[in-house]
Amino acid sequence: MPQEFSMQVIARIHSDFSTKFGVPRQSGLVDALEATVVFEPAFRNADALRGLEDFSHLWLVWVFDQAIRGEWSPTVRPPRLGGNRRMGVFATRSPFRPNPIALSSVKLAGIQQTAEHGPILRIRGADLMDGTPILDIKPYIPYADCHPDALGGFASVPAGETLEVVIPDALLPRVPAERLEALRGVLAQDPRPHYQNDPARVYGFGFAGMEVKFSVDGGRLTVTDIQQKAD
Q1: Model pTM score
Q2: Exposed/middle/buried for residue 207 (C-beta within 10 Å: 0-12, 13-18, 19+)
Q3: CA 211 to CA 230: how far, in whole Å?
Q4: Exposed/middle/buried for residue 14 (C-beta within 10 Å: 0-12, 13-18, 19+)
């Protein structure tokens, strides 16, 4: 018998990504990425986090709110496979699912009490766009959640080699020092769609209030411009 369940958004993430483009394809790929989890007013209760400080990593259960469709398809085209081969939706982490739910493992960098938002979580390595709604938070438990002998199917190894990132000296002062390592890490993962490989094309994405433009030739990514985005 079909059933429907209602869920509440308990928190939203505040990250450096204003758009989907540039967000790492999996959590944990860029440890230098920092973000905060800010709870909705009804859930700003420090008691709900009691004991969480004893865990190093968390599971975030969240919503693909930028990829909701009216209908679902039993097969999708994973970017990992060049976008030209279909796989079963349940054999992928595609956002286009019967229920647009995602799961990310992140590092807990700290719990901070604030006057404006109550307790917030400082996390590292998240693969979420700014403002993404979070449905639940669970502790990562090593003995139950880590399976060293697990098989990874067509995604058993990271997608390709990381790129050499070149940021010209003239552009470096435009990047806040505390964001430089994270930006390099994001660019090294090659934000381009896997099926695009045009060295003459210039790509751009929003990151930490900046508009970053770059091109890729072979294994070398060169930043061509960095501008502060207008508020």
Answers
A1: 0.90
A2: buried
A3: 9
A4: middle
